Every structure is written in C-alpha cells, then in structure tokens.
Amino acid sequence: MLPPQLCWLPLLAALLPPVPAQKFSALTFLRVDQDKDRDCSLDCPSSPQKPLCASDGRTFLSRCEFQRAKCKDPQLEIAHRGNCKECWD
C-alpha cells in the first residue's frame, strides 16, 4: 500500500509507454517481460466472488483472477482478503 503522498505514482506509471529492461552494471531496474508468451488464460466464470487485495494494490474479484495475474507476474502476492483500500479513501 502506498502512503497518501505517493498515490499518484500508479496513475503516472499507467500513462507511460512500456519500456524494455536495460541492465546498468549488475542491477536491472526494469524487469524484462520474459513471460509474455506464457499461457495464462485461466477460465474463471464460475469462480466464487471473494475479493482479494494483491501486493500491487489491485483488487481481484476471485482467487482464479488473482492466479491468472500471478501467472504473468510471479512476484504478485495476496496482501489481504477483501478489496484494496483506495488512496483517496
């Protein structure tokens, strides 16, 4: 969860075009989208609607939807059950 003074960061990031990762010495600042061809098309129509808040601040309506997103981003974790709190709440 972001502190209130940083709530605008995800909005700004959404406006920026995707950029391929570049290595600077031993550090990688942006992750390469190496899993873009991975099949993450889980079918979730009958999954029970139990919201989960993920570590990236997004709310997923079911565990299945969360698993589909985690397939593309293995670092994604469940932060807590229920909806994520919005920055402006």
Gyration radius, in Å: 15 Å
| Beta content | 5-15%
Report the span from N to C terminus. 12 Å
How would you name the oligomeric state of the polypeptide chains in this document? single chain
**CATH structural class of the domain at 44-89:** Alpha Beta
CATH architecture of the domain at 44-89: 2-Layer Sandwich
Question: Any idea of the CATH topology of the domain at 44-89?
Answer: Wheat Germ Agglutinin (Isolectin 2), domain 1
What overall geometry do the principal axes of the alpha carbons give? globular
Identify low-pLDDT runs: 25-33
Order of helices and strands: HEEEEHE
Q: What structural class results from the helix and strand content?
A: alpha+beta
Helix content: 10-25%
How many individual helices? 2
Largest sheet: 3 strands, antiparallel
Determine the mean pLDDT: 75
Spatial strand arrangement across the major sheet: 4-3-5
Give me the count of strands: 5
Keywords: Secreted, Signal
InterPro entries: Dev_reg/Prot_inhib, Kazal_dom, Kazal_dom_sf
Signal peptide: 1-21
GO cellular component, one term: extracellular region
Short characterization:
With 89 residues, this protein is α+β, with helices and mostly antiparallel strands. It has two helices and five strands; from the N terminus they run H-E-E-E-E-H-E.
Task: Please provide a written account of the structure.
InterPro entries: Dev_reg/Prot_inhib, Kazal_dom, Kazal_dom_sf. It comes from Rattus norvegicus (Rat). Residues 34-86 form the Kazal-like domain. The protein contains 2 helices and 5 strands. It starts with 7 loop residues before the first helix and ends in an 8-residue tail after the last strand. The protein is of the alpha+beta class and 89 residues long. The chain is 20% helix and 15% strand. The strands form 2 sheets. The protein has a 3-stranded antiparallel beta sheet with strand order 4-3-5. A two-stranded antiparallel sheet has the order 1-2.
